[in-house]
C-alpha cells in the first residue's frame, strides 16, 4: 500500500527560453520524485509549454513585473512537502517559497534543509549546467544535456520550411529588421520556403521584414502562435534562424537545425549543447545588458553574409521545380 503523493513546488517564473533551459533540472527532479505531484510556478502563458515538457504534473500561475519574484501565497492547500528555487540566487525567490512553510526547501541562497554552506552561484556558468549542479549538490542528479522534448502531437502549419523569427523580448537581442530581410531574400532566391513568426506584440516587425523581403502573406505567422502549433512549426522546420530567444531553445529541444545570433550574452552561457546541427554566431566583446533598449554592439557585428553562409550550410539544396 502506498502513501499519499507528496507535493513538490518548483519556482521558475521566467520566459520560454528560461523554461526550456531549466528542462534538464526539471527532468532530474521528475526522476527523483517519480510518484509525487510536481507543480511548476511560472507565468500562465507558459502553461502549455510547461506541461509539454513531460516533467511536471501541474502549474501554479505566477507572474511578476519584469524578471522579478512573484507572490506565491495563492498556493492551495497545505504547505508543499518540498519547494525548489530554480528562479534565482538571492533571498527574494527563496523567501517567496519559504513563506509557504515547506517541509524542505532547496535554494542557492541557502536554507535550513540543505548543505551548509549552500552551493556557490557562479556567474560564468552555462544556465543548464548551473541548475543541474545545484540539484546535484542536494543529492538529485541531473544531466545538463538532457534537453529534448517529446515530439509534438499537433501538425505543423508549414512543414519543411525555414522559420525566421526576427523578434526578441528586449531590443538588445534584436538584430535589425533590414538584415533579417536580406537573409530571407537570399534563402528564397536559393529556392527555400521561408515563413516568418513573431510574438504577440511583434506584428509590425514581422510585416516590415516580410515587405522588405517580398514574403507573401500566407507565409506570415504573426501574433504569437499557441504553443502546440509553435512547437510543431519548429519541430518540423528545415531550419530556424533567430536571435537568442525562446525559439532557439525550442529548436534545440526538437533537434531542429538552427542558426542563433548572440549579442549581449555569449553562447557559452546560454547556447546550445555541443554536437547537433546548431550554429551559434557571436563576436566577443564587453558584457552587455540582455534586457537593454538598443541592439547590443556585439550583435550588430554579425553581418548578413555570415548568417546566410551558416544557414545554407545546414540546408539541403532545394530540388528544382
UniProtKB/TrEMBL annotation:
Superkingdom per UniProt: Bacteria
Protein's recorded name: Glycosyltransferase family 9 protein
Pfam families noted in UniProt: Glyco_transf_9
Swiss-Prot/TrEMBL keywords: Glycosyltransferase, Transferase
InterPro entries: Glyco_trans_9 (IPR002201), LPS_LOS_Heptosyltrfase (IPR051199)
SUPFAM superfamilies noted in UniProt: UDP-Glycosyltransferase/glycogen phosphorylase
